[in-house]
Amino acid sequence: MPAKIVVLFPTATEASLFRSDDVISIVSGVGLTCTAYATMKAIYEHRPDWLILSGIAGVFPHSDMKIGDVALVEAEVESDLGFFTKDGFIHMAHLPIEMDFERRHTLHCPHFPEDLDMRRARGISVNAAMAPFIDTTQSDLENMEGGAFFHVCLKEQQRFIELRAISNIVSTEDDQWDMMGSVAAMTEGLHRLIRHLQQG
């Protein structure tokens, strides 16, 4: 029996070119809150073997990736979760405060198919795109959903993968975008990923 696969797309635009009779696709909404809800609902309504988040993302100028590239996301950080202090922004995980809570920073995906030749990238998730105060030095991509998706899947012990295609440069000074070109590249990469998971 082929693997039961559910794909979440943040927007209908990102889902617009995807066609598969064997896969359940859901438009989950933009942002961390919508994604957390949609991820949990998909897990409990469909009980998938694999849950995929597929969408477009911005690339940071320091990354060697370019518009149109496709990658599997190996790590996510909810990067704008924290406090502003007199010394600047401090991530919640690093906040020097005597309070008992889960200090969550970098989340990793443990479910990569080792024999699938696809690029890997590191992502950050934000509610405010292109925020100037966050640390981007260890990341390639910016998106608005991945951190919530990783967190829920890890907590629920759900096998998951995030796939992103580069649509734009993360810079207020560089307005390069290729929306539909990146959606087409993402869709092609998604079909390739799904074929591999179904064969496994």
UniProtKB/TrEMBL annotation:
InterPro entries: Nucleoside_phosphorylase_d (IPR000845), Nucleoside_phosphorylase_sf (IPR035994). Residues 21-193 form the Nucleoside phosphorylase domain. GO terms for molecular function: adenosylhomocysteine nucleosidase activity; methylthioadenosine nucleosidase activity. One of its GO terms (biological process) is nucleoside metabolic process. Coiled coil: none annotated. SUPFAM superfamilies: Purine and uridine phosphorylases. Gene3D superfamilies: Nucleoside phosphorylase domain. It comes from the Bacteria. GO terms for cellular component: cytosol. PANTHER family: 5'-METHYLTHIOADENOSINE/S-ADENOSYLHOMOCYSTEINE NUCLEOSIDASE, FUTALOSINE HYDROLASE. This is Nucleoside phosphorylase domain-containing protein. It comes from Undibacterium luofuense. The lineage of its organism: Bacteria, Pseudomonadati, Pseudomonadota, Betaproteobacteria, Burkholderiales.
